[in-house]
């Protein structure tokens, strides 16, 4: 018997054996004198261990040449440089520290989740019974064979949702729905209604409208001048009882107390005919809203009164939300859906909830736009399944913890879906463009701290599982890309939208733990709220698209002199520099009404604007370039008490 050790050290170790016959002399038979046939002997040929099979040629029975022989020269040079650097103690210490922070290189599977022993306790007499919720839900699901009927349950859920949507938008006899910022006259730009407001006169008509709930949370994003008062960060309401025609109708209804803050309602707008209008609009703070005052005459005004029944006028946002919350919880906890089925359900339901209920782009919904966003949403959902939900949901599904999934995932999902409502008081808008106020900075710091804490917890778990390098290799390339996009210049800005932030957070919420379960659901809801409401907006946007109704920073006229009782205001004539910019005339607002357009004069008198000198008046002006008015100046105020203009330094 010969062994592999006789064949050379290249075949050291025994993992597989083969048999071959070998001839050897046979001993003579002393009794018969005949020679015996050759007898086979066993020789064991050893093969390399399994982990060396990649270097073994099975056909030739020889080891392959070392892989280093096929390496390019630059790779060998790189190895020499690396070896030289690592020979330095300081470099080695830094590398060792980095490797310690990054953790092990070998990946390990995450541990399965364990239950939190959620119990349902009830007391009867002197006895107190407590039973774990997850085993009860699993037992009820199996006992009633509920998973076999999940399609029927989903069909009934969808049917109820459709009936509620019909009641919300298509109730027979219900008045048309309007947005929270709708008004008889547009409020921006200041000269939108033309000379003496004539272009808006026909819009001032009687009508009944249905207002959504929550309009007290819809506020101005940029300052508005109402006479001499700057209004911002609140609904635009001018007056009390009698409202200026550019006030927001639903906010006026809330201010009057005739509709609900939560459920909205119907109101009737009764206009005061143009140009009679009204004057002495008083300001007040009632029903949680503050209105601005305005003393001079304004040619458009209206009053509001309650109308319509509760069932025809209520906003179904919160009733539909409650219905979907209960239905989703029951589906998750009792029907024990498979992870893929559960994700598909919350994806479709969440998208429908955003575009039809919580944050619809239009009221009633524009169905072509609703279905337009479905394919992209489903594609994003497939990506979310691949990078996150496949692992987190599968872990809890295998551990049979349906109640915990219903609680943690449901909480994260609904906070994300309702983020526009829940976070409406956070003073952060247009992040990445413009500056934040003090309250906005505090809110942003708080958000960063919360997100940072979650990232650190997840990073510690990833390190333990040897996954830090895997995720760093996928996230770090995004850094130079974002730096380049943030520095494009030419009035382009990096804009991190809802859906981008949510999609960026999904991959790190892939562990089968409760943080991932909550965080992934929140990211999905946050993504649906952003993409469903605003669409797939670009990551880079021009300053003009982000400007909205804010001042653009254009050139403005500069008042050079004001007179006393005569009330004359003067400013320099249009010069060649301004003409080169397309500026050839000015527009003048007097008491927030356009009284001069394409005006080429250089002075204006209080008598040109009004005959009533008993109240304060307000003067603003702007250059006109290529037929469009630029930024208006801050108001110059005529004080009736001393018949003089206040001096305002324009810049």
From TrEMBL:
Gene3D superfamilies named in the record: LCCL-like domain
SUPFAM superfamilies named among the record's database cross-references: LCCL domain
Keyword tags: Membrane, Transmembrane, Transmembrane helix
The LCCL domain, residue ranges: 191-298
Biased composition (Polar residues): 12-33
Pfam families, per the entry: LCCL
TM spans (from-to): 149-169, 316-336, 341-360, 366-385, 437-462, 474-493, 499-528
Region spans: Disordered: 1-41
InterPro entries reported in the protein's UniProt record: CRISP-LCCL_domain (IPR051957), LCCL (IPR004043), LCCL_sf (IPR036609)
PANTHER family reported in the protein's UniProt record: CYSTEINE RICH SECRETORY PROTEIN LCCL DOMAIN CONTAINING 2, LCCL DOMAIN PROTEIN (AFU_ORTHOLOGUE AFUA_5G08630)
Name assigned to this protein: LCCL domain-containing protein
Naturally occurring in which organism (per UniProt): Cutaneotrichosporon oleaginosum
């Amino acid at each position: 018997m010969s062994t592999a050790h006789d064949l050379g050290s290249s075949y050291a170790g025994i993992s597989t054996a083969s048999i071959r016959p070998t001839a050897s002399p046979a001993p003579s038979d002393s009794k018969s004198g005949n020679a015996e046939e050759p007898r086979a002997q066993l020789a064991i040929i050893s093969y390399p261990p399994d982990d060396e099979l990649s270097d073994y040629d099975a056909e030739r029975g020889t080891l392959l040449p070392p892989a280093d022989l096929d390496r390019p020269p630059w790779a060998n040079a790189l190895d020499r440089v690396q070896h030289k650097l690592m020979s330095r103690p300081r470099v080695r210490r830094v590398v060792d520290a980095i490797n310690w922070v990054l953790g092990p290189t070998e990946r390990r599977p995450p541990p399965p989740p364990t239950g939190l022993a959620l119990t349902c306790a009830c007391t009867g007499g002197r006895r107190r019974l407590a039973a774990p919720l997850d085993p009860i839900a699993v037992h009820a699901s199996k006992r009633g064979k509920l998973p076999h009927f999940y399609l029927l349950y989903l069909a009934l859920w969808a049917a109820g949702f459709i009936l509620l949507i019909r009641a919300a938008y298509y109730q027979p006899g219900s008045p048309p729905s309007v947005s929270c910022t709708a008004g008889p006259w547009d409020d921006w730009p200041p000269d939108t209604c033309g000379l003496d407001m004539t272009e808006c006169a026909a819009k001032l008509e009687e009508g009944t409208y249905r207002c959504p709930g929550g309009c007290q949370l819809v506020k101005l994003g940029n300052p508005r001048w109402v006479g001499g008062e700057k209004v911002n960060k609140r609904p635009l309401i001018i007056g009390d009882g009698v409202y200026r025609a550019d006030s927001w109708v639903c906010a006026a209804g809330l201010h009057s107390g005739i509709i609900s803050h939560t459920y909205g309602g119907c109101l009737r707008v009764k206009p005061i005919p143009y140009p009679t209008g009204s004057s002495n609009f008083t300001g007040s703070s009632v029903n949680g809203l503050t209105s601005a005052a305005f003393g001079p005459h304004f040619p458009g005004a209206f009053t509001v009164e309650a109308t319509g029944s509760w069932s025809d006028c209520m906003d179904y946002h919160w009733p539909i939300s409650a219905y979907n919350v209960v239905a989703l919880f029951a589906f998750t906890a009792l029907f024990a859906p498979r992870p893929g089925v559960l994700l598909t359900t919350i994806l479709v339901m969440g998208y429908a909830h955003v575009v039809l209920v919580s944050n619809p782009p239009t009221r009633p919904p524009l169905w072509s736009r609703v279905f337009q966003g479905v394919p992209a949403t489903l594609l994003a959902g497939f990506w979310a399944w691949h990078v996150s939900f496949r692992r987190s949901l599968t872990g809890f599904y295998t551990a049979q913890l349906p109640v915990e999934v219903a609680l943690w995932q449901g909480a994260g999902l609904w906070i994300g879906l309702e983020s526009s409502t829940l976070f409406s008081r956070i003073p952060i808008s247009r992040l990445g463009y413009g500056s934040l106020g003090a309250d906005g900075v505090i809110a942003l710091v708080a958000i960063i701290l919360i997100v940072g804490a979650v990232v650190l917890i997840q990073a510690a778990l990833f390190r333990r599982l040897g996954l830090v390098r895997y995720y760093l290799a996928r996230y770090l390339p995004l850094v130079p890309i974002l730096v380049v996009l943030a520095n494009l210049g030419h009035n382009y800005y990096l804009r991190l939208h809802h859906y981008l932030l949510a999609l960026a957070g999904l991959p790190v919420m892939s562990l089968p733990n409760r943080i991932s379960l909550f965080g992934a659901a929140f990211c999905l809801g946050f993504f649906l709220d952003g993409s469903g409401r605003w669409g797939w907006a670009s990551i880079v946007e021009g300053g003009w698209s982000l400007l909205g109704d804010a001042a653009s920073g254009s050139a403005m006229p500069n008042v050079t002199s004001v007179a006393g009782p005569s009330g004359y205001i003067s400013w320099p004539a249009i010069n060649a520099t301004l003409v080169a910019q397309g500026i050839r005339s000015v527009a003048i607002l007097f008491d927030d009404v356009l009284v001069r357009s394409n005006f080429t004069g250089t002075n204006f008198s209080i008598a040109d604007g009004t005959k009533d000198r008993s109240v304060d008046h307000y003067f603003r002006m702007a250059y006109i370039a290529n037929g469009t008015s630029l930024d208006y100046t801050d108001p110059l105020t005529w004080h009736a008490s001393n018949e003089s203009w206040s001096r305002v330094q324009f810049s």
